[in-house]
Amino acid sequence: MKVFDRPVSDKMMVFFSFIVGAFIIYPRIIDLPRELARLSAQSDAIEHVLFFIYRYLFFCLLTWILISVNIHRQKVPTFGRRLLKTFLITAIAYMVYVFISLAISKHVDCFTGLLLFQFVVACLLCSFTGHVFALYSEQSAHEREIEKLKTENLQSRCEALANQINPHFFFNSLNGLSALVRGDRKKQTLKYINELSGVFRYILQSDKKGLVQLTEELKFLDSFRYLQEIRYTDKLCFDIRVPEEKKNCLIPVLSLLPLIENIVKHNMIDSENPMKVSLFMNGQNELVVSNPIHKKIDPPDQNGIGLTNLSDRFGLLLNKKIRVENQNGCFNVYLPLS
Q1: CA-to-CA distance for 234 and 63, rounded, in angstroms?
Q2: Which of 327, 263, 254 is nearest to 295 (CA)?
Q3: How far is CA 100 from CA 105, 165, 337, in A?
Q4: Are 48 and 37 in contact (CB under 8 A)?
Q5: Can you list the pairs that 101-110 forms with residues at least 24 positions away whose Cβ atoms lie under 8 Å?
Q6: What is the mean pLDDT of the chain?
Q7: Which candidate, 289, 283, 285, 291, places its Cα nearest to that of 318?
Q8: Which residues of 285-301 are buried (b: 16+ CB within 10 A; e: fewer)?
Q9: The whole model's pTM is what?
Q10: DSSP per-residue letters across 139-155
């Protein structure tokens, strides 16, 4: 219940006190017209009404004190101790009421069963209200703690999954750089290093992010494309067709990196087997990453860590699963967007 998830304001307690005060003296409210009819003198009627207002305000004040004590000052878990403390305060309030009534010569009803019943009702009602509030507050705090632990666990798992990607990409990048160095291509090597630093900058800046806009991933892919296109010259190309209105959709950070790495890792890319990677949207608001299959003669180990991590991150951050299809000579991965 949302009312227990935030502090009770003074205005709410005052409003509650006036309502409860009217509930407690309700029998007196019903009898007030009949009691006034028995009084012949106008001064007696005014005096009776003023005493009635005093009695109502006294119970409103008593209710406000009891509610304040039960909500803000009593954190005891057992109802018995709470009821005992509330009863002591109520007993003191009753003695104050009797003293004031005797002082103004309005002590006729001080020892009646109705008045005692009204004080008992105030005591029990405020005790139960405070106890229920304490129980719900404790439950809400427990639920918030559970949600906090879930969030922290989710963040830790996402960071751990993202960190598994970085070493894989790092070693692949070093292989591309070493190829340029061996070819003595200084200008391309310098540009390769600049693009590589941009890629790692994105990875480092996005490490604490969960979701990013698709446009950020595509910008990152532009730099990553350069690294791969340099490595494979004109044997690797990309066909990206994503509508502008879809580029604001959310996607887990570093979703495209493991897919492109898998394409390079598991496929033969040469002049006889050129690789064209296609990225496009389908009618189900999914980003499709598609490539033809050119299996290597000596395929690498099929540990599947990249797709597994990616699927886990989509499940954690979007509560959705990726889809993978391997048919008709094409390998398609469907990434749901948010």
Answers
A1: 83
A2: 263
A3: 8, 78, 72
A4: no
A5: 104/51, 106/51
A6: 78
A7: 285
A8: ebbbbbbbbbeeeeeee
A9: 0.51
A10: HHHHHHHHHHHHHHHHH
Given a cut of 50, whether residue 5 has pLDDT beyond it is: no
Average the pLDDT over each of 8-17, 134-143, 235-244 and give the range with the smallest value. Answer: 8-17
Q: Tell me the two tokens of residue 35.
A: 């009691």
- How crowded is the C-beta side of 62, counted as CA atoms within 13 Å? 33
Question: How confident is the model over 133-164, as pLDDT tens digits?
Answer: 888 877 877 777 777 656 655 665 555 555 55
pLDDT (0 to 100) of residue 34: 73
Q: What is the pLDDT of residue 4?
A: 43
Higher model confidence: residue 54 or residue 330? Answer: 330
216, HSE (Cβ side, Cα atoms, 13 Å)? 18
Per the CB < 8 A criterion, the answer to whether 219 and 247 are in contact is: no
b/e for 40-72, b at 16 or more Cβ within 10 A?
eeeeeeeebeeebeebbebbbebbbbbbbbbbe
User: What single DSSP character describes residue 293?
Assistant: -
Q: Are 277 and 239 in contact (CB under 8 A)?
A: yes
pLDDT at 307 over 90: no
Most confident of 80-84, 183-187, 297-301: 80-84
Q: What is the spatial distance between Cα 287 and Cα 210, in angstroms, rounded to a whole number?
A: 18
Distance between CA 334 and CA 338 in Å, rounded?
13
Q: What's the rounded Cα separation, in Å, for the pair 37 and 45?
A: 9
The dihedral region occupied by 259, where left means phi > 0, alpha psi between -120 and 50, and beta the remainder, is alpha
